[in-house]
Amino acid sequence: MLRGRFLRRAPRWSLTHQPQNTQAFPDCIRRFTSSASRFTPGFSSSKNVQDHDAASTAAAPGKSGAHEGQYARTDNSVRVEYPDQKELPPSRPVQGRGGLHYKRTLASFSLEGRVGVVTGGARGLGLVMAQALVTSGADVALVDLNKEEAERSAQELVKNFEAENPDSEKLPKVTAHYADVSDPASVDQSLQEILKEHGKVDNLVTSAGFTENFDAISYPYDRMKKLWGVNVDGTYLYAVAVAKHLMERKAPGSIVMIGSMSGAIVNVPQPQAPYNASKAAVRHLASSLAVEWASAGIRVNCISPGYMLTALTKKILDDNPELQKKWTSLIPVGKMGRPEDLMGAVTFLASDASLYVTGADLRVDGAYTCT
Ligand SMILES: NC(=O)c1ccc[n+]([C@@H]2O[C@H](COP(=O)([O-])OP(=O)(O)OC[C@H]3O[C@@H](n4cnc5c(N)ncnc54)[C@H](O)[C@@H]3O)[C@@H](O)[C@H]2O)c1
């Protein structure tokens, strides 16, 4: 069970809340229009014109109703703190996705003989993307702050593979490693450990990252620094470490950075400015490093997921049913994604099926960012 601290909101968020910032401009603020008479009742000759004016910048905020900006604004009362490790719910590999199949597909999607590293691979999206790499033929190293959970997940991935592929001659090698990705020494140490176990690395998926909700004015500075440390520094540090290894080996490779649709849009109603900025940084890091490392045969792409239903988001939404309605009402597909909806995207970008794709941002968001 997550403790109450996990969801500290005051007051509890509600769809029926009044939109903020609808108070009239104070008189000291000069309006864009120079015509003061436009705010005077009776200025327009017809009621229709008055209605339209009330919905335009000719009128004071709130003039056309309390709904102004209602679905496009953040709500400072939504506050969700990322839980401590011991409070994070565990995840399981998905079932029924990994068995041998005999349908034709492109050989270039196979990751046979490759070694992939997944940061944040102990649970959530990282775990399921690691499963996609294993299913596609790779050996995998799970890297996480929570080594115990990563070990459990590594064992489950192999058990799951065995159950779904009873005739397989060879089991995948899946290992678990501790790292705090925001710490350069810890990153290097974990990579050395992985190289000792696996001999090489061909693919990297950077899924270690987290989000929190505080309005910008009250965001605790130390938490903001921590968030950027994991989401931005952590992505950068692991990518550089793996690229260095690939360059030393003179081997091609593919790096997939997990961004978020929040790197391109501003989510509502939960306020999360530092997270959004961190994910915009991840997206542009992918493009920048794609250009820098193109001549070395190292591809770098970004996957930007929309709202995905992980064990953690399930818990948050159980406590905030109104939030779920609000989120799904803003997604053209009308549904949140499941972690397994990223399996194809990560396999495509990690494999030779995407040899000419680098510096791209693949949005897996049910068209959220199209509207
Ligand atoms: N779940 C979503 O809806 C969603 C949507 C868009 C993007 N994302 C992004 O996907 C990634 C994975 O999210 P998730 O939902 O699976 O989260 P999660 O919390 O379920 O899993 C994240 C994992 O990262 C690990 N981690 C955290 N800090 C770390 C550190 N300093 N070093 C190493 N490991 C660390 C955690 O222990 C955890 O196992 C994150 O970058 C997140 O921002 C998630």
TrEMBL record:
EC top class named in words: oxidoreductase
Disordered as annotated region, ranges: 42-77
EC number annotated for this UniProt entry: 1.1.1.138
Record-level GO BP terms: mannitol metabolic process
Signal peptide: none
UniProt-listed SUPFAM superfamilies: NAD(P)-binding Rossmann-fold domains
Domain Ig-like: 271-371
Keywords of the record: NADP, Oxidoreductase
GO MF annotation, one: mannitol 2-dehydrogenase (NADP+) activity
Translocase keyword on record: no
InterPro entries linked to this entry: Ig-like_dom, NAD(P)-bd_dom_sf, Sc_DH/Rdtase_CS, SDR_fam
PANTHER family from the UniProt entry: BENZIL REDUCTASE (PTHR43008), DEHYDROGENASE ARBD, PUTATIVE-RELATED (PTHR43008:SF14)
Family: Belongs to the short-chain dehydrogenases/reductases (SDR) family.
Name this protein carries in UniProt: NADP-dependent mannitol dehydrogenase
